[in-house]
Amino acid sequence: MPEIPCGFNLTRHQREVAGRTYLEYWLVTDAGPVKLTTSAQRPVYFVRQQDQILVTELLSNERFEYEFKVLDLVNFAQEPIAAMYFQRSSAAYKAKKRLQQAHILCFEDDIRLSERFLMERFVYGSAAFTGIAQHTEGYQSYHQAQLKPADYVPRFKVLSLDIECSEQGELYSIGLAANDYQLVLMIGKQSKDIAPDWLSWVADEKGLLLGLLEAVKDYDPDIFVGWNVVNFDFRLLIKRAQAHNVVLTLGRGAEPIKWRDARGEVNQGFVSMPGRLVIDGIDALKTATYHFDSFSLESVAQALLGKGKLSDDVDNRMAAINHDFKHNKIKLAEYNLQDCALVLEIFTHTRLLDFLTLRSQLTGLELDRAGGSVAAFINLYLPKLHRAGYVSPNRPDDGGLASPGGDVMNYRPGLYRQVLVLDFKSLYPSIIRTFKIDPLGLIEGLKTPNEAIPGYKGGMFSRDKHFLPDIITSLWQQRDEAKLNKDAARSQAIKILMNSFYGVLGSGGCPFYDTRLASSITMRGPDIMQTTAKWITAAGYQVIYGDTDSTFVWLEGEINDEQAQAI
């Protein structure tokens, strides 16, 4: 039996063709890029069965193709649920707006079809696939594709991109670099000086943009990386391309790049292109919980690599760039290329792509997704919830209420020698695991309170019907294994994911938000810390300070380091 091919999901899109909705996934595989197109899929969300007559009346005058299907599911209020299936995403969206105007509750109406398709199949990051194969220039495509989970480790072709321009945004040059490739496209003519072989001259801005398209087509990267590369470099490239009527077909299959403004943010947005990703170094470092006084490329490079940009005039780089473009283009090209190289070195030094890949394999989040704790939780939790007979609740309309925070004990000011600092290992995840804190567990626990584990704020948690404690246990075991194997990237990805679960449950942006969930974690913590302090005091030692998950114990008397370690 032939081996089923596997790959790693780079991008996901949906298209409407002839009144039907199809999903497209671009994968990185050992055999090169692969485009998967599914059979027609039906967008879906859920309503209460009791609303069927009203739904039918509201939509009867609309030309919507939909199916109202009774399901063996309930919501958290134990009301029977039905599905609303549509042929087109645009019709599903319009119908949803019509129902919401009539105050009819819709559940799970904000989950993109391309993500629902993957999560319901437990496909996170990597996938095995089958379908009708067809070779296309530059890639392999599969129609009527089927996907299932797989354990596949991708090897990405990464291209670092950086532009130089004037204060007004007029392009001077574009630098591109990879481990096996480097190129600077520069507006100008060949000078008398001997130019390096990686420097290519173009006549004007339009030539610069067309040269970029040709270079990307030749190198065929999976991922672009850079520094503020989305909201500066690509945003400006798109703007200049529009000015010159150039279509930036930077996606695979000659697909154009698209820009989408971020809600409520000035000069902030997102870029997408089928088959390729853009990952910003600043966002990636923040997602991996790195902290710096400044996230400028110069500052981060100095902190991590011990070196920075190629520039004599650190305080006025813009003036130096303008000067070099007029009088020393080769120097500007070297500066441009060095910025590309620094970004590559930072990604290599921090193993950022390893971290993001592991995060995707754990949660199904896209590699370029900054943050995404709520989305990660939904990806992991929702398919299990459906199989338990429930649909997700909705996000709170008021944004949610704050939950009590961690406690700080009374402290004893002073200067001390030999202080033991005892830190709980992942206190909040431990509480979730031990006391069965879980959205489904809360609903089931309230149904049989006499058999449940008491929480706080009226919370009661089922001892055997839950998912999150088991998810935590599995992640905990994986992290212990990663630490044993000295796999820092995997360990960090798992740690961040585990620690995000409390924040998710206490966030009004999460559909599973409930004050009884978050409070049963944060209010349990101080009780544990106070009990810990009492036990230590009863053993004859003094607790001089304690916070959310740490206890500081003073060892009085003439205690040396060896004795302190023994205690």
What is the percentage of strand-forming residues? Answer: 15-25%
Question: How far apart are the first and last residues' alpha carbons, in Å?
Answer: 61 Å
Whole-number average pLDDT?
Answer: 92
H/I helix tally: 18
- Could you say which overall geometry the principal axes of the C-alpha atoms support? globular
Quick one: how many beta strands?
21
Task: Describe the sheet with the most strands.
Answer: 6 strands, mixed
Give the helix proportion (percent range): 25-40%
| Biggest sheet strand line-up | 12-11-10-9-13-16
Report the radius of gyration as a whole number of Å.
Answer: 28 Å
Structural category:
alpha+beta
Low-confidence stretches: none
Structure description:
This protein has helices at residues 52-59, 89-101, 113-119, 205-219, 229-243, 281-287, 297-305, 317-327, 329-350, 352-363, 373-387, 427-434, 439-447, 468-484, 488-505, 515-522, 524-538, 561-566; strands at 6-17, 20-29, 32-37, 44-48, 66-74, 80-86, 126-136, 139-149, 158-165, 171-178, 181-187, 199-202, 223-226, 258-261, 269-272, 277-280, 419-423, 453-454, 460-461, 542-546, 550-554. The chain is of the alpha+beta class. Helix 12 (427-434) crosses helix 14 and helix 14 packs antiparallel against helix 15 (488-505).
